[in-house]
Amino acid sequence: MGLLSYFFAEKPETSVKKEICYFVEGFLACPYFQEAMSLADRLDTTSSQSKIQVEVTAHSRPDWRERINELNKDIPGAQDHRTSPLVWEGCAGQPIRFIGGYDNFVHYTRKKHFVGESRNV
């Protein structure tokens, strides 16, 4: 094998099955949603050894009103949540766990992953 083929050969990826999945939804202009996105970015999701996956979905403010009503029906425990963002946990095949809004997400990730807020909203 030549030197170049060593550098350009495809290396098998050894990725770890995602065991922790977070979903963050909200309306884009909301500062709390933006902070939740920032917090989600700080979770270790990019390394092949990470067990965490985060999916962030942004909505326009008018669309958010309709979407939060759907989420209230679909996510156990979220029936009374009315603000942006709405955060929950649960990979495919796992039970869904409602976390709450931005403050709840900060407390939860601080306790579980030792990651917290970067600044005050």
Defining traits:
single chain, 121 residues, alpha+beta, 4-stranded mixed beta sheet, 20% strand
Topology, pairings included?
Elements: H1 3-8, E1 20-27, H2 31-42, E2 52-59, H3 61-74, E3 86-89, E4 97-100, H4 102-113
Parallel strand pairs: 1-2
Antiparallel strand pairs: 1-3, 3-4
Count of β-strands: 4
| Residue-averaged pLDDT | 85
Measure the end-to-end span.
Answer: 55 Å
Main sheet properties: 4 strands, mixed
> pLDDT below 50 for ≥5 consecutive residues: which ranges?
none
Run of helices and strands: HEHEHEEH
- CA radius of gyration is 18 Å
Number of helices: 4
Q: Strand percentage, roughly?
A: 15-25%
Note the overall shape: globular
Q: Look at the helices and sheets and give the structural class.
A: alpha+beta
* Helix coverage percent: 25-40%
Strand order of the largest sheet: 2-1-3-4
Structural features, described:
- It is a single chain.
- With 121 residues, the protein is an alpha+beta fold.
- 36% of the residues lie in helices and 20% in strands.
- It contains four helices and four strands; from the N terminus they run αβαβαββα.
- It has helices at residues 3-8, 31-42, 61-74, 102-113, and strands at residues 20-27, 52-59, 86-89, 97-100.
- A four-stranded mixed β-sheet has the order 2-1-3-4.
- The model has no long low-confidence stretch (mean pLDDT 85).
